[in-house]
Structure formats: C-alpha cells, structure tokens
Design goal:
This protein is α+β, with helices and mostly antiparallel strands and about 60 residues long. The chain is built from one helix and four strands, in the order H-E-E-E-E. The longest helix is centred in the N-terminal third of the chain and has 16 residues, at about 1-15. Keywords: Signal.
Length: about 60
C-alpha cells in the first residue's frame, strides 16, 4: 500500500506537467508542417508534399 501511494504522488505531478508536443507547426515558406521526423521521404496526403529539414523528412502544405 505504501508503494502504491508513493508511486501515485511521484508519477501524478509528472503526468499533469508533461504536455504533448504539437502535431502541426508553421514553417516559413511552407505553411503548416507535421512535427514528425522520418529518415526517408514520407508519403504525404493529398495537398501535402515531403520536405527535408536536416536529416528529417516531414509533410507540409502551402
């Protein structure tokens, strides 16, 4: 029981404070891009295109 209480008080603040990264971001010249990093060009949906940023590939729209 003590272990369960300790675990809850230790993990609960971490779960509340940790925020997920946004899935979309705006990039100059590209409009909106996915916040993903692929090591090869991605197959993007209709209206989107693959963009290389350093070693990462992602999908953007204009």
């Amino acid at each position: 029981m003590r272990l369960l209480v300790t675990a809850l008080f230790t993990l609960l603040p971490s779960l509340i404070i940790a925020a997920p990264a946004p899935l979309l971001e705006e990039r100059a010249g590209f409009g909106v891009c996915l916040s993903v990093c692929g090591f090869e060009p991605l197959k993007c949906g209709e209206g989107a295109f693959a963009v290389q940023d350093g070693v990462c590939w992602t999908c953007c729209t204009k």
